């Protein structure tokens, strides 16, 4: 899976271990997810191109300014994708924020789209999709297909915990999409839950279990 980047950062791996803990409060889940998101976003933005701006002045001399050379949009998948948005927008503060509402229907495990406010014409060079969990991969697949249909040239996907089955399916189907993940778990049970996973992320984040 040449387009899947699994972080080996020791701090991130420790945070994943802490996030898995069932006794966490919603506040702890939110804080841990945010920290993990910041570490993943660092890796997802390592190859962004730069462009020179104007001549600037430091306290001791002049220098040529630089800025990110591509127009970006952050795409949190409602609702749990919002937990990664602060981390992403703090780094990419000039990026547009566009939301997609998708949920997994419990009986069929198929994605259902309920919110989409993308402009009629694509106006960015790159989208970074934010969703903490990839289980079967159906929701991620639907989001990527929506963005490809919109016409965005480049898509990156940032996820905290993924199943091997789900990420392998996505990596094969979308070879031009880059996936940045913190951990790949081997087991996907009959209910479509990743094991050991991080549980129902939306419920844990919002205290709605």
From TrEMBL:
<dbReference type="InterPro" id="IPR029057">
    <property type="entry name" value="PRTase-like"/>
</dbReference>
<dbReference type="GO" id="GO:0005525">
    <property type="term" value="F:GTP binding"/>
</dbReference>
<comment type="pathway">
    <text>Pyrimidine metabolism; UMP biosynthesis via salvage pathway; UMP from uracil: step 1/1.</text>
</comment>
<comment type="similarity">
    <text>Belongs to the UPRTase family.</text>
</comment>
<feature type="domain" description="Phosphoribosyltransferase">
    <location>
        <begin position="6"/>
        <end position="208"/>
    </location>
</feature>
<keyword id="KW-0342">GTP-binding</keyword>
<keyword id="KW-0808">Transferase</keyword>
<dbReference type="GO" id="GO:0004845">
    <property type="term" value="F:uracil phosphoribosyltransferase activity"/>
</dbReference>
<keyword id="KW-0328">Glycosyltransferase</keyword>
<dbReference type="InterPro" id="IPR050054">
    <property type="entry name" value="UPRTase/APRTase"/>
</dbReference>
<dbReference type="InterPro" id="IPR000836">
    <property type="entry name" value="PRTase_dom"/>
</dbReference>
<protein>
    <recommendedName>
        <fullName>uracil phosphoribosyltransferase</fullName>
        <ecNumber>2.4.2.9</ecNumber>
    </recommendedName>
</protein>
<keyword id="KW-0021">Allosteric enzyme</keyword>
<dbReference type="Pfam" id="PF14681">
    <property type="entry name" value="UPRTase"/>
</dbReference>
<keyword id="KW-0547">Nucleotide-binding</keyword>
